[in-house]
Amino acid sequence: MTNINFTLDWRIEGPSAPFLMALERGYFEEEGLRVSIDSGNGSAGAVTRVATGAYDMGFADFNALVEHVAANPDDSLQAVYMVYNSIPAAVFAAKSSGIETPADLVGKTLGSPVFDGGRKAWPSFAAANGLEVDAVSWESVDPAIRETLMAQGRLDGITGFYFTSLLNLEARGMDMDDVTVMLYADFGVPLYGNAIIASNGMMRDNPDAVAAFNRAFNRALVETIEDPATAITYVKQRDGLIDEELELRRLNLALESVVITDDTRRDGLGSVTMERLETAIDEAVSSFGLSMTPVAAELFNMDMLPERASREVPAL
Amino acid sequence: MAISKRKKFLVKHASWLLMIVLLVFWEFICRALQVPQFLFPAPTAVLEAGIARWEIISMHALQTLYTTLVGFAIAVAFGLLVGMAVGSSPLVYRALYPMMVGFNSIPKVAFVPVLVVWFGIGTVPAILTAFLISFFPVLVNVATGLSTLEPELEDVLRSMGASKLDILRKVGLPRTMPYFFASLKVAITLAFVGSVISETVASNLGIGYLMMAASSSMDMALVFAGLIVIGAMGVGMYELFALTEKRFTGWANRGSGGVA
Amino acid sequence: MAISKRKKFLVKHASWLLMIVLLVFWEFICRALQVPQFLFPAPTAVLEAGIARWEIISMHALQTLYTTLVGFAIAVAFGLLVGMAVGSSPLVYRALYPMMVGFNSIPKVAFVPVLVVWFGIGTVPAILTAFLISFFPVLVNVATGLSTLEPELEDVLRSMGASKLDILRKVGLPRTMPYFFASLKVAITLAFVGSVISETVASNLGIGYLMMAASSSMDMALVFAGLIVIGAMGVGMYELFALTEKRFTGWANRGSGGVA
Amino acid sequence: MEQVRFEQVSLAYDEGGPLAIQDISLSVAENEFIAVVGPSGCGKSTLMKLVSGLTEPTEGYVYVGGRQVAGPQKCIGMAFQASNLLPWRTTLDNVMLPLEIVQPYRSQMRRQRKAFEARCRDLLARVGLAGNEDKFPWELSGGMQQRASICRALIHKPKLLMLDEPFGALDAFTKEELWIMLQELWQEEPFTVILVTHDLREATFLADTVYVLSKGPGQLVARKAIEQARPRKLEWTYTDDFARDVHELREHIGRIRES
Amino acid sequence: MEQVRFEQVSLAYDEGGPLAIQDISLSVAENEFIAVVGPSGCGKSTLMKLVSGLTEPTEGYVYVGGRQVAGPQKCIGMAFQASNLLPWRTTLDNVMLPLEIVQPYRSQMRRQRKAFEARCRDLLARVGLAGNEDKFPWELSGGMQQRASICRALIHKPKLLMLDEPFGALDAFTKEELWIMLQELWQEEPFTVILVTHDLREATFLADTVYVLSKGPGQLVARKAIEQARPRKLEWTYTDDFARDVHELREHIGRIRES
Ligand SMILES: Nc1ncnc2c1ncn2[C@@H]1O[C@H](COP(=O)(O)OP(=O)(O)OP(=O)(O)O)[C@@H](O)[C@H]1O
Ligand SMILES: Nc1ncnc2c1ncn2[C@@H]1O[C@H](COP(=O)(O)OP(=O)(O)OP(=O)(O)O)[C@@H](O)[C@H]1O
Ligand SMILES: [Mg+2]
Ligand SMILES: [Mg+2]
After folding, report:
1. What is the pLDDT of residues A11-24, one digit of tens each?
2. What pLDDT does B72 receive?
3. Quick one: pLDDT at residue C187?
4. Which domain of life is it from (chains B, C) (predicted)?
5. What is the DSSP string of B103-143?
């Protein structure tokens, strides 16, 4: 048995379902792994946790990984399974502010925390849609209140994770008919989303365990896609606090928007194409203003992926 | 006599009465201004949420209470010791004080990620954060109490040939008790803040985690129920100190009638 | 005599010496253990980052200093007033104290969103958070100082037919000064924590914002530079109090030689 | 006219506890100088607290200036047994204190600060504390503290002066000088004085009337008028006449102790 | 053998400030009973602090038991001018304090607590404080506090007892009783006593030698041996013999004041 401690990107929520399912159904154990899963504190924080060796593996933002490796070239962290095939970020804007298309954003005020993926990737979004980078002005606000401020009309729009902010806006009484949603992936941003990453030491000492982890996870992911409602029960089991209905919606939104995409239908779950990966890395480097460009092949390790057949997106 | 009895009753139950008044006021505001539930839920909603999930809440509350108390205990011991050093030695005073003030101006939440790397998430960082955030008031008050000790009282002991340690034990510390207990009231609140904050950043358990989880599922009533449980635990601890305080600082409170 | 002079020198410069020792130690640890830069940068790296960006840092630092000081000033005024009420009246003591302890056990960061919704992003929530987090130590210490006032001294004033207010002004407050200044040291650190925390939640300016921005671009050296600037401002404020304190509580510190 | 009046006053510090003084009735005329003597712990200081309204009687009534005492009085100067100087004020500022509190000085304080200060310095010089005005209380010797405290009781010319063993820590000569000083002040502008003392010579020399309290719960056991004319000279204390008066008081107290 | 010795001792509280005492040389034999008298503020309490090592002389040397004084002494019992009882301890516990600090009592404390307590109660009863053992200091009258403080100085049978105006707040009878008690204790098991007092009768009655200090910076101006045999009786104080001794001291002090 190999021990692996694993950190999630965020708190236990709907999208954590496949990880918890793999754990609860014993898929990890079957692969000879003893896995413990902890909640996280942000998808960039997860990179740090794994980089420092506090965790063996984690579920982290691929772009944060790019950033980390660019700043610390000696660290050879690697992504091994691309769970979110595209960055889940989106711009949400109030139609009442007259925003229907990206061009309408010019001169408007958007709010989000400085570390928000959507905000950081804004230059990509702007470039892809023919906007100046400083076309909008930003208010830095905590994730917990950006939707509130937008619902109150204090902000014209926000950036945020699609499946988080959407639900939050609804909960604050906004009608989705009054909101323009611009998912980055739909508006020409090629960035990838969250991936499973593995520490330096893991990749060096025990690559088999990493591959095994991926197999178990992949199995659970496929089953989650097939039956999200059952998958959510594992989340509820782990954390009695959650609202099952809400988390099921969140999970479904995540699956629909960033897990099941044209790319994954074509190449299977978890994989990337080198071509897009290189573009995505370049895009991240220019968007975040990084000082160097990490090598794509070193950032994502294709060898850890389960065989292609098992990664087929199930037909529903 | 009847008036005095009524007054006594009032004094005795003042805290409850005020609390009830405030709750009613809060409820009223929420209803009158139609404050949205996701911003600031009314007490009835909070109560409902609290009762519906009391088992989960109490599990998390116990964890928080545990980490808080351990961190607080370490903080009190450390604060007492360093406070004694600072209060008795001008050298230590000069050397340590500015440093400590500087250190304590820094939000402790900045250290939690570092603690997580060293100790993993969960109990240990919460304990350490509670400790780091709450030792300072104890230190400051103990140091102040000792350094404002009347030299006349010290002389009583010195004239008997008492050692520095004896003086500290027999005069310094008893004289410092009012300061010490004042600091405990501040420190316990900070200890709760510390462990909750650490839990929001790095834990799967505890009221801090509960609050984050609840807020990410937009259950503000539960968030507030968590807050209120923290507050209630704080009050509980306070009442405990108040009992002990009476024993140790009764002499100092002799002036103020019914207070101590 | 030579020894005493050396000792005086040591006492006078102790804080600098200790700080230098600690910095050297920190640098050594970072190098020896090869602590990764993104976790805990070495002082040299922090210094470098600080010098390279000093203009930006000082702009943010000024904002934080401003919000902190305003919040702190309100906290001191409020803490003094309520502390006086709590310290002089058993009824207020009983009614308010548990409530206050409960309230202060709650992490203030939970209120920032509410404040932001009411007052917008930026300065006002930072000031209010600094206030909310830092008034309690002042309140507790002032209340304790007043309630442990020696009745003999109070009687001196009462025998002249002084009003309650006179007694408070002429005996209560002067006697409470050592408590008050002790609490200022704690309160100022908390005020800094409060405004920084509020800035991390919602602001486009201030060290809190700077730290968030720096950490989101993984520039830990800059984060630590921010932390250190906060610490330094804390120490600066402390030195200011230390000067004032000497004037007001010299009488109480008469015992402890060079300390006050 | 009557200035102070006790009507069957008793006091127990703790409810239901032992009495500190018991069933005391006496009356002090305006501008009378009385002395109270009695064994240690008999309740003399307690008596003072009752007059000044710092404590309330458990039974009976106390009147000052014809009004029942309910709370602290306005027209009183009091020197406590322990000097109780405020440690954060210099000697001068301690003596200034009543002028900051008591009317009419209080409202004149702003304009006349300098004059008041001079007045305090004068008084301090009269009790031999010239040059110590800027010292803090803990820099004074025991006797010096006591003298400063007497100044504080006198400075605002109270209508009723209460002195609780004011000269206990002074040597015989200083003490006698202050007796003379006090008598002079009293004759210049008369006021009522209640003096608690252990020194029977002091009581005899200064007072118009001496009251003797019994041991235990203090009860009035004797009242002796001293008939000697004013101003009394120190030489009088060497006369047999004086010695007889002192001796009579002494016998009263001696009798208490035996009983 | 010599117990205490001053060699040209001067002391200024503030560096370069005025002297509190100046150029004092004296020596106290073992088991001698000396008294120090002098005008208020002349430096008597300062002298006591020097002997007990609470302050260091600015010039000169102080020896106790043949050793130069450097810091607090182990064999001393001291009653301060202000009683300085610890407010958080009951009377009994205040008197017990030395037994908790001083050897050999300290190490026997655990086992013999009961016995020590009984001893304290006995002593308290001897000074007339029976029944007040469990009161806190602020519940005692001034004179009662002073008596408790005397007990605290005596309880551990110090080799050198220092009393700074121990009987100042007591009435004449209580005072005389305590004189007798002190003399008895001293005769049972002799020890050295330094007594500061303003009462010349007290000094004469109790001391083997009386030292007179001058005003201002205290200097030794007279030393008078009292030849009367022990045990001295109170009756002696009514004799002309006694009166003459007292008068002589009085004249010494009188002369100081005039100069
Ligand atoms: N604050 C108090 N609480 C309880 N008991 C007290 C208090 N003050 C005084 N007593 C008690 O009341 C009695 C009288 O005390 P009081 O101080 O009036 O005596 P006194 O005549 O002034 O004595 P002395 O001459 O020693 O000063 C004493 O038995 C004392 O123990
Ligand atoms: N702590 C101190 N700091 C500065 N000066 C002091 C201090 N203590 C005493 N003095 C000064 O030293 C001188 C002598 O004081 P001391 O207390 O020895 O007098 P004393 O003879 O005991 O007088 P008394 O009979 O009034 O008690 C006084 O002038 C006093 O002002
Ligand atoms: Mg008295
Ligand atoms: Mg003295």
Report:
1. 889 999 999 999 99
2. 97
3. 95
4. Bacteria
5. HHHS-GGGGHHHHHHHH-SSHHHHHHHHHHHHHHHHHHHHH
CB B200 within 8 A of CB A45: no
State mean pLDDT over A78-84: 95
Q: Residue B5: inside a domain, yes or no?
A: yes
Strand-pairing partners, residue D128, are: none
Report pLDDT digits (tens) over E12-44: 988 888 888 989 999 999 999 999 998 888 899
Encoded tokens for A307: 């065989």
E205 CA to centre of ligand 2 in angstroms: 26
In a domain, D235, yes or no: no
Closest B-chain CA to A245: B217
Task: Please tell me the total count of domains within chain B.
Answer: 2
Q: Domain check: are C195 and C246 in the same one?
A: yes
Q: Are residues E89 and E143 in the same domain?
A: yes
What is the biggest distance separating any 2 CA atoms in chain B, rounded to whole angstroms?
Answer: 71
The range of the structural domain enclosing residue C183 comes to 53-251
Counting the structural domains of chain E, the total is 2
* DSSP-derived secondary structure letter, E42: S
Name the residue with the closest Cα to ligand 1, atom 10. E139
Burial class (CB in 10 A: 0-12, 13-18, 19+), A316: exposed
Q: Kindly report the backbone phi and psi dihedral angles of residue A140, in degrees, each rounded to the nearest multiple of 5, phi listed first.
A: -90, 115
Q: pLDDT tens, A152-163?
A: 888 999 999 999
Contacts of C39 in chain A (CB under 8 A): 48, 52
Residue B140 is part of a domain; what is its CATH number?
1.10.3720.10
- What type of residue is A102? P
Rounded mean pLDDT, A184-201: 93
Low pLDDT (below 50) residues in chain E: none
CA of E242 to the centre of ligand 4 (A): 26
Chain C neighbours, 3+ Cβ pairs < 8 A: A, B, D
In this structure, the number of other CB atoms found within 10 A of the CB of residue B90 comes to 19
Mean pLDDT of chain D: 90
CA distance D4 to chain C (A): 16
**Within-domain flag for B19:** yes
Q: Do the Cβ atoms of C37 and A138 come within 8 Å?
A: no
- pLDDT recorded at residue A243: 86
Contacts with E78 (C-beta within 8 Å, 6 or more apart), sequence order: B159, B160, E48, E52, E153, E161, E162, E163, E164
**Are E171 and D38 within 8 A, CB to CB?**
yes
The one-letter amino acid code at A5 reads: N
Where is the domain boundary, D140, D156, D172?
D156
Profile chain B (260 residues) by mean pLDDT over runs of 10 residues. 67 84 90 82 90 91 96 96 90 88 90 84 92 95 91 90 90 92 94 93 88 83 91 92 85 57
Element housing E49 (H / E)? helix E44-51
Q: Clarify whether residues D174 and D127 are in a common domain.
A: no
Ligand nearest the Cα of residue D80 is 3
Buried/exposed D158-182: b ≥16 CB within 10 Å, e otherwise: bbbbbbbbbbbbbbbbbbbbbbebb
pLDDT of amino acid E71: 80
Q: Do C179 and B151 touch (CB under 8 A)?
A: no
Name which of B53, B116, B197 to mutate to probe chain A: the one with the most chain A Cβ atoms within 10 A of its Cβ. B116
**What ipTM is given for this predicted complex?**
0.91
**What's the pLDDT score for residue A144?**
77
Query: Looking at the complex, does the CB of residue D80 fall below 8 Å from at least one CB of chain C?
Result: yes
Which candidate from D170, D174, D253 shows the least CB-CB separation from E171?
Answer: D253
Q: Which of D22, D42, D78 to mutate to test the pocket of ligand 1 (most atoms within 8 A of CB)?
A: D42
Q: Which two tokens stand for residue A191?
A: 């960035």
Q: Which residues, including other chains, have CB under 8 Å from residue C24's CB and lie 6 or more apart?
A: none
Per-residue b/e over E137-169, b at no fewer than 16 CB within 10 Å? beebbbbbbbbbbbbbbbbbebbbbbbbbbbbb
In this structure, what DSSP letter does residue C108 have? G
